[in-house]
From TrEMBL:
Gene3D superfamilies: Medium-chain alcohol dehydrogenases, catalytic domain, NAD(P)-binding Rossmann-like Domain. This is Tumor protein p53 inducible protein 3. GO terms for biological process: NADP+ metabolic process. It comes from the Eukaryota. Residues 10-328 form the Enoyl reductase (ER) domain. The lineage of its organism: Eukaryota, Metazoa, Chordata, Craniata, Vertebrata. SMART domains: PKS_ER. Transmembrane segments: none annotated. It comes from Gorilla gorilla gorilla. GO terms for molecular function: NADPH binding; protein homodimerization activity; quinone binding; quinone reductase (NADPH) activity.
Length: 332
């Protein structure tokens, strides 16, 4: 089968598509013939040599995919049959023509969505769902500040925040991105290149601050985050795009706010946890991708590339231009 590959860590120019052995499904696993796979920041970091796959996972890039069930491994419970369309949360391996998946990490594709659209759901939407509900304990009426609000996770988080009855606020780096955020349901958006998002947030919340922050930036934002956190607020850190170092009185400022700093990753969690997350998401959220009306959820796709243009896809994501997801289509 064809798969995305790189021989040594480095820039996008190291990526190419090559012929590799097709995997076989193990106990309780399904072989998925991949139609499409979306790009995530983790793919860029892995290519740069900064983020190894979890033990036992494929070293091929790709944390989510959609396609057709091609084969059932021994011990499958009968939920899936050959030919079914499905989308999958993966620890790696999605950017290839075939990938093996524990059957509990497959989800049905919502009615009305294409395989390409579905590929943009698993990693981004499950991450946003996990951060808001399982980690951040979002409540109706909460102000939620979402950094990188127009990333894949950000566009999902805006919609899921609204669905929870909370009020999404976002940061982004362009007017175009902020306009899209408002279309998706953000109550306000702040251009971090032109204004202090912390002061703007305090002004919008009439001095109260935000109850929950979803933060994939880290180090460079710590002071502004603590500044605009409400009393007893929760600050959920799930990425370090702005670095991992802190210099200053973080603890005293956080203590003063009685704030909670919680960290979370999804890729490294065990299959039991991921299965619980997939089940909850499938029951509570998935139907809303197919319902007509104001509550309808929508995966936001920016660009679609054939997998042979993997270098261009990585360059585009690295330039931070994307609004929503970048999807790769695999040859059928």
């Amino acid at each position: 089968m064809l798969a995305v590959h790189f021989d040594k860590p480095g820039g996008p120019e190291n990526l190419y598509v090559k012929e590799v052995a097709k995997p076989s499904p193990g106990e309780g696993e399904v072989l998925l013939k991949v139609a499409a796979s979306a790009l995530n920041r983790a793919d860029l970091m892995q290519r740069q040599g900064q983020y190894d796959p979890p033990p036992g996972a494929s070293n091929i890039l790709g944390l989510e995919a959609s396609g057709h069930v091609a084969e059932l491994g021994p011990g499958c419970q009968g939920h899936w049959k050959i030919g079914d369309t499905a989308m999958a949360l993966l620890p790696g391996g999605g950017q290839a023509q075939y990938v093996t998946v524990p059957e509990g990490l497959l989800m049905p594709i919502p009615e009305g969505l294409t395989l390409t659209q579905a590929a943009a759901i698993p990693e981004a939407w499950l991450t946003a769902f996990q951060l808001l509900h399982l980690v951040g304990n979002v409540q109706a009426g909460d102000y939620v500040l979402i950094h990188a609000g127009l990333s894949g996770v950000g566009t999902a988080a805006i919609q899921l925040t609204r669905m929870a009855g909370a009020i999404p606020l976002v940061t982004a780096g362009s007017q175009k991105k902020l306009q899209m955020a408002e279309k998706l349901g953000a109550a306000a958006g702040f251009n971090y290149k032109e204004e202090d998002f912390s002061e703007a947030t305090l002004k919008f919340t009439k001095g109260a601050g935000v109850n929950l922050i979803l933060d994939c930036i880290g180090g460079s934002y710590w002071e502004k985050n603590v500044n605009c956190l409400a009393l007893d607020g929760r600050w959920v850190l799930y990425g370090l795009m702005g670095g991992g170092d802190i210099n200053g009185p973080l603890f005293s400022k956080l203590l003063f706010k009685r704030g909670s700093l919680i960290t979370s990753l999804l890729r490294s969690r065990d299959n039991k946890y991921k299965q619980m997350l997939v089940n909850a998401f499938t029951e509570q959220i998935l139907p809303h991708f197919s319902t007509e009306g104001p509550q309808r959820l929508l995966p936001v796709l920016d660009r679609i590339y054939p997998v042979t243009e993997i270098q261009e896809a990585h360059k585009y994501m690295e330039a931070n231009k994307n609004i929503g997801k970048i999807v790769l289509e695999l040859p059928q």
